[in-house]
Each structure stands twice: as C-alpha cells, then as structure tokens.
Amino acid sequence: MIKKSSNPYYHIAYWLFVILVLTLVFGLSWRNNLAAFFFISMLLPVVLGTSYFFNYVLVPKYYLKKQIVKFVLYSIYTIIISLYLEMVVLMFSFIYIGNFSFYNLDPNASDTILLAVILYLLVFVGSFLLMIRQIRENQQLILQLQSENNKMKKLFLEIMSNRKIVKIPYNEIVYIESLSDYIRVNTVNEQIISKEKISNLASRLPDIFLRIHRSFIINKEKIKSISYNEVTVDDVILNIGRSYRKEVKETLNNK
C-alpha cells in the first residue's frame, strides 16, 4: 500500500511562525503588540482557509492535473473572496479593539495595503512549500506505481528450489511462510521450499501480497475471512502480528 506522509508538526510550526511575524510587523506599525496579537488571532481563520483551500483543493484538483486555466481562474476567485473576508475582519477587529480601549493605535493600523502584502506573502510562501511537498509526493507515487507495474509484468514468482529455478504463478500462491533462513511457498497444489529470507522476498512481490506477520505473507485474493488477529486464506488460519495489525487493517479496508 502506498502512503502519503503528513507531518502535523510542520504545519503547526509554520503557522506559529506566521502569527509571530504578523504580530511583530503590525505591533511595530501600531506600536501596540497586544492589539496586534488580538487582531492576528481574528485574522488567522482567513489565512488558514485561503492557504489550505489553495493547497488541498486547487493544486491537486487542477494544477497537478494540468488544468492550468481553471487553476488560475479559481485562484483569482479565492484571492478575491479572501480579500473580502479580510476587509470584514478588519472592520470588526477595529470595532472590537476600539471597544476595549486600545487608544494608542498608530494611524498605520488602518494600512490595509501593508496587511494584504504581509498576509499573502506568508500565505503563498507556505503554499509554495506545501505545493513542492505535494509534487514530490506525487513523483514518489509515480515511481512506486511504475515499480509495481514492473513487478506485475511477471505473472510468476521465481525462486531457487532443489538447485533449480522454479516459476510459481502468483494466482496459485496462497501464502508464504518463513522458516528461519528458508521460506515455504504454499500453493493450491503443493509446497515449495527455498533458501531465502522472507524479508528479501517481500520486496520482490507485487501489491496483491500482504505481509501480516514476521513469518507470513498472504495472497490478498485468497482471503476468505478476517478478524482482529486472524486471517483465513483458503482453509488455513494465520495469526496477524501485533506490529502488522494497523497496516493490515488499512490495506484491506482500501482493497
């Protein structure tokens, strides 16, 4: 199964950085850091919404699919809506700040051009970094799919058994069992033993096979039933290793 990496700490660290920079910039401009912090806190949902809509809707749906015209058009719409929401937040934030007697605000507090420049600079710097990550992940996905296709070009597993190469069709393999430095390939008709470690064999198998235990690899197409800690392939019941349960569950749920 192919997974996408997602590190929430990266996002948290970046947005903490955004809050810090915006607070410092507007705090210096207004000569009131506390007022700037409250203002940025109310502005943050607009920033988050703009950034994540751009990255997780527009980029994968249009940019990565080479629909550049739609990508540019909807990006412009996003900026317009975001600017409108920004103006709404500006209006209510000044009312909110005024009601709480922040009388020392500098006249630069109304400088919406500075606000827009700083806001969208940080939003699109973050968006650019996230876009690079998404493109890199897609490239890795393509490489993995190409590797998987290369594995599937062969319709059989080649192993050495009794000093000769044996070709076992994938669709005949039920499960593979580890015997220390040996493996036993259990097929619908026979058992074939080869001197090879199961970990080395696993990297050569296509996606129809799934490792469920340090000692077992099963053919997903042979599964008859599955429970929390057991899988039945044909008429054989095999244990699911504790460290493999999460991956097995995720893989079979996406099957």
What is the H-and-E element order? HHHHEEEEEHEEEEEH
Per DSSP, what share of the residues sits in E-state strands of 2 or more residues? 15-25%
Major β-sheet strand ordering: 5-4-3-7-6
Give me the secondary-structure category. Answer: alpha+beta
How would you describe what is shown here?
The chain is an alpha+beta fold and 255 residues long. The protein folds into two domains: 145 residues, no CATH class; 92 residues, Beta Barrel (OB fold (Dihydrolipoamide Acetyltransferase, E2P)), CATH 2.40.50. 56% of the residues lie in helices and 20% in strands. The strands form three sheets. A five-stranded antiparallel sheet has the order 5-4-3-7-6. A three-stranded antiparallel sheet has the order 8-9-10, with no helix packed on it. It has a two-stranded antiparallel sheet with strand order 1-2. α1 runs antiparallel to α4. It is elongated and about 80 Å long. The N and C termini lie close together (10 Å). The N terminus is likely disordered.
In a nutshell, what does this entry contain?
This protein is 56% helix and 20% strand.
Note the main attributes of this structure:
disordered N terminus, OB fold (Dihydrolipoamide Acetyltransferase, E2P), elongated, alpha+beta, five-stranded antiparallel β-sheet, 255 residues, three-stranded antiparallel β-sheet, 2 domains
